[in-house]
Design brief:
Chains A, B: This is Pyridoxamine 5'-phosphate oxidase-related FMN-binding protein. Chains A, B: It comes from Methanohalobium evestigatum (strain ATCC BAA-1072 / DSM 3721 / NBRC 107634 / OCM 161 / Z-7303). Chains A, B: Residues 16-134 form the Pyridoxamine 5'-phosphate oxidase N-terminal domain. Two copies of one chain form a homodimer. Chain A is α+β, with helices and mostly antiparallel strands. The first copy, chain A, has one domain: Roll (Pnp Oxidase, Chain A), CATH 2.30.110.10. Chain A is built from three helices and seven strands; from the N terminus they run αββββαββαβ. Chain A has helices at residues 18-24, 66-73, 103-115, and strands at 30-35, 41-46, 49-53, 56-61, 76-81, 90-99, 123-134. The radius of gyration of chain A is 16 Å and the shape is globular. Chain A starts with 17 loop residues before the first helix and ends in a 12-residue tail after the last strand. The interface between A and B is large, with 40 and 41 residues.
Chain lengths: 146, 146
């Protein structure tokens, strides 16, 4: 008997479509939600929230407090993509990795320092998108899109 | 020996100050964050989010999906108060009660129906404010204000 074990790396990741990416590009400040391990929700506005490829978001930690401690104990985050200029409204959930050294961290550090030398760019929060949900007001709200 | 037990009702509630209330009144759409019991964060934009008194926020559930199931199993929520017109940026956390009948529910129902007959106004989510945190970008971000 032969048992074949297939390990699918990153199998739970999803890719944003073109319409979602266009809407994403229209947002300047995103609401970034996290939760402590025991479920206390936290939401803060963030300016540095970049879509690096179809399935990866980079968030810069300049002044994170509860957000950082939440992510350290519970590496999950959620944002929504909406303002008065977007055509749709999407909620994104993802799994997070915190980086404070290495090539990706250095790249984020340089991007943040170009925005302003005062920003400390303490950590790179790399979010891999796992789910996208409809977020427009109406009976379809909450429906899983990706 | 006499032991005096003092039970302070609602002792963990806090009241917004005048500046916070003024900022609150300038927001049309709030980011409303919840989490499942096991800590999966969720954030959605909400239009009906009213400050009813210094320590009480009413949110109308028209089309809640994960938000409702999260609050049913973990009655905690977080919002922030910020847009380009506010003088400050505050994060509010609170404990939530879900009401689907009674005087408060009926009042919310009528308020929602005045906004548009199409809205189902399924539940009133009453949030009692427990904490307020500084949310403006900078070294003070995350500091407990109330």
């Amino acid at each position: 008997m032969t048992i074949t074990l297939i390990i699918l790396g990153d199998s739970n990741m999803v890719k944003l479509d073109e319409k979602m990416k266009e809407d994403f590009s229209k947002i300047k400040i995103f609401p970034f939600a996290t939760a402590s391990k025991d479920g206390v929700p936290n939401v803060v506005p963030i300016g540095f929230c970049k879509l690096m490829d179809d399935e990866t978001i980079w968030v810069a930690d300049n002044y994170f407090d509860k957000t950082l401690s939440n992510l350290q104990e519970n590496p999950k985050a959620s944002i929504f993509v909406w303002n008065t200029e977007t055509s749709g409204c999407y909620q994104i959930k993802g799994d997070v990795e915190i980086k404070s050294s290495g090539e990706d961290y250095n790249r984020m550090y340089n991007m943040v320092k170009e925005m302003g030398d005062k920003y400390p760019a303490k950590h790179l929060v790399e979010m891999k998108i796992t789910n996208v949900y409809e977020c427009k007001s109406g009976p379809e709200a909450g429906k899983k899109l990706l």
